[in-house]
Amino acid sequence: NAGVTQTPKFQVLKTGQSMTLQCAQDMNHNSMYWYRQDPGMGLRLIYYSASEGTTDKGEVPNGYNVSRLNKREFSLRLESAAPSQTSVYFCASSERLGDTQYFGPGTRLTVL
Amino acid sequence: GENVEQHPSTLSVQEGDSAVIKCTYSDSASNYFPWYKQELGKGPQLIIDIRSNVGEKKDQRIAVTLNKTAKHFSLHITETQPEDSAVYFCAASTSSGTYKYIFGTGTRLKVLA
Lengths: 112, 113
Hints:
The structure holds two protein chains of two kinds.
Chain A: E1 4-7, E2 10-13, E3 19-25, E4 31-37, E5 43-49, E6 56-57, E7 64-68, E8 74-78, E9 87-94, E10 102-103, E11 107-111
Parallel strand pairs in A: 2-11
Antiparallel strand pairs in A: 1-3, 3-8, 4-5, 4-9, 5-6, 7-8, 9-10, 9-11
Chain B: E1 4-7, E2 10-14, E3 19-25, E4 32-38, E5 45-51, E6 56-59, E7 62-67, E8 72-77, E9 86-94, E10 100-103, E11 107-112
Parallel strand pairs in B: 2-11
Antiparallel strand pairs in B: 1-3, 3-8, 4-5, 4-9, 6-7, 7-8, 9-10, 9-11
């Protein structure tokens, strides 16, 4: 089992560019999550998907969109990147909403 | 809004000593309290968790205590080892009503050999 995988590991964008961060899990979990981690602020929930076919906003959804492509995959899209979106992004999954979350290795994104 | 306060932000202990990290939460509906360890360049990994119907849980050198009345919970690491050095995060989760999973701001633990 690979657990939760994320691609890419690193990315540099210019302001205004778009990109999609990919996440996949092989644990047959129902729920998936996207977080961002900034120094001194811990992890903040961007969006989550309680089950296949549903998505909901978290604490900091502005500037992002998500797609729950199927049970395994949950992608995060930045339509027009801004320097304030420079961060480390983590994807996580859990068997059900509220259960223990398992995190991927993260994507370090820099927006110039 | 709801928040989780975590203290201290940094903690240095001698190898073999104990370390205690404390968190306070504001949402009385929170019912699940996990603790994560994050090593440099990696994602957070769950080390122990506790649910609201339990006051204490132990797993070898690690224990978590929960005081629902005071809305705080603590992580205790005994006989610390250099490999315990990492950043530790607490979180408080509410799965009834509007879902919330709020992390504390982290504690950088250094175990000095």
